[in-house]
Structure formats: structure tokens, C-alpha cells
Amino acid sequence: MTKIPISVLELATVTEGGNFKTAIDNTVKVAQNAESLGYTRIWMAEHHNMEYIASSATSVLIGHVAEKTQTIRVGSGGIMLPNHSPLVIAEQFGTLETMYPNRIDLGLGRAPGSDQLTAMALRRNQETAHAFPNDIKQLQAYFSEENRDAKVRAFPGEGLDIPLYILGSSTDSAYLAAEMGLPYAFAAHFAPAQFRTVINIYRNNFKPSEKLAKPYVMACVNVLAADTDEEAQILLNSLISLIIGILTNTRRPLRPLEAVPEAYNIPEVKNAVNNMLACTFVGSQETIKQSLSIFIAENNIDELIVASHIYDLDAKLKSFTILSEALAV
């Protein structure tokens, strides 16, 4: 297997017994650990009106993590552009790139990262998702040197080379990333059903751009690694509980569980959870190596982005270490 970049997706999830401060502190520790292991980047995801996720002010959190690290790239996975004016995002990420040169990524998503009522509270109308392609083009314009003659300009931001990525879980985002010639990151960690179909659409329709000569596929998957397969399966119980909370709108902090939640035994719930776990890799170093090597090779993945919802911070950091060793060439 050819060695590929490994990166991290973080939501700054609140764990049982913790709070928003500990969630943010732990995100910094995850970033520092990933940096020491040679991971390429850490991205934070924008979510709103979610009681146990601390990454709502994504640009602020990116700056905090970048300040506490030295070399790892830090960015958004993603900024939900319908929630924001492109000018505001150009200014925010222009500021971040100015403060932390050559380390900032801007991943962009079309979804609100929340419910529709919250999306309205973010001061944007419901039609903004349809303007997503034009908003990206406007964002690119603000970053370009050619914008210097425009009446509205982004300072700082103008003339800065900030990499853009399209995030998605559907065919629409794949077509858009292909049309714009941008890297494409697919959210297989929660929406794996269309993964292979969508990345084929992206590759088959890709048009080279000034920024990218050929398709670049980034697959976000769940990885829960431990010393043994049995220990890793226990870690999986927490993720199953988290997914059930999302599906049933009974969210709770991430918590340790020795056994699967009782609701998992309901056939409809179990089927829905298992469908969401289709791109989840659980086990010891050898198990992870075998399963991920097959996944990467079969799908010709260019970069792996890892989400690891693990209650205990030490176990979480260890999971990243085991993964790094498993995929080392």
C-alpha cells in the first residue's frame, strides 16, 4: 500500500463529566498529539444548537488550535457557507492565514450544520444553500489579487493562497467539486451509503483547475483502535450510543459503556446505526491495518481523515498512535 496523508476531524465533543472548556482543551491535546505523530491536518466542524459540541465558533477554535501547535495544518471541516457572508469568511480566514502562514485550510459545506430554525437564527434566509456555488466563486474572488480593483475587498485575505476544499455527502457536492476543480472530502463517517458512487462521479467529471490538476479524494471515516480487538469493540459502544442519540434526538455527552445501549437491540435502530457505521474501522493495530489497507486501495483514496469519538482522552490519543503505526510504510 502506498503511504497516504492521515488527518483528523474534531467536533470538540463534550464527554460525560466534562464541559465546553474541557472539550476545547482536549481538542488542543488531540491536535498536539496528531502533530507529534506526523498527521497532515486537523479540521474542526461547524455545528450549531448542539448541546454537547463546542465547535460552533469554528474560526475562533481554529485560531486557538493553530496557536497551540507549530506545524500541523489547521482548518475547517467545514465552514457551512450558507450560514455566512463570503466576505466575512474571507476576512476571518485571511486573518488566520496572516497569523499562521501556510497552515490554514478552508473546507466548505452546503448544509447548515443545524436545524432550519437555527439556520434562520444565523441571519441567513433559507435560499442561501442554492447560492452555494456562487458563494464559493465570490469567496475565491475575494482571495484573488484580481479583486484589487473591486469596490468591496477582503482585508486581510486578498492575494492569500488559502486552499479550498469541498465537503459533502451527496452527488450534488461531488459534481460541484469536479466542476470547480477542487479537492473533495466525503463524509463517510456518518453518510457512507453513497460513498463509492459519489467519488466515482467526482473523478469521472473532474475538470482540472489552476489549483488542482487531477482529482483529490479525501475520505473521512471513523477509526477506533486499541491494543486488542476486544478493547476496541468496547470503545465502539460509546459511538453507537452517540449515533442513537442523534437518530432519536436524545443526545447525551459522550460516555463510556461496557455494553451496547438497550435501544440498539431494536431492529430498526440497529439497522440505521449499522448503516451509518459502514465506514467505521475498529480493532487492534493488525486488524486496522488489514481493513483500512483494503479500503484505501479499493477506493484509491488520496488522504484519510479520521474521526475518533472516544470517551477517554488517553485512549483516544492512543488510538491515533496505533493508527499511525498501522499505516506506516
From TrEMBL:
Top-rank taxon: Bacteria
Broad enzyme group: oxidoreductase
E.C. numbers: 1.-.-.-
Organism from which the protein derives: Lacihabitans lacunae
Entry's transmembrane regions: none
NCBIfam families from the UniProt entry: oxido_grp_1 (TIGR03558)
Alphabetized InterPro entries for the sequence: Bact_Lucif_Oxidored, CmoO-like, Luciferase-like_dom, Luciferase-like_sf
Name of the protein in its database record: LLM class flavin-dependent oxidoreductase
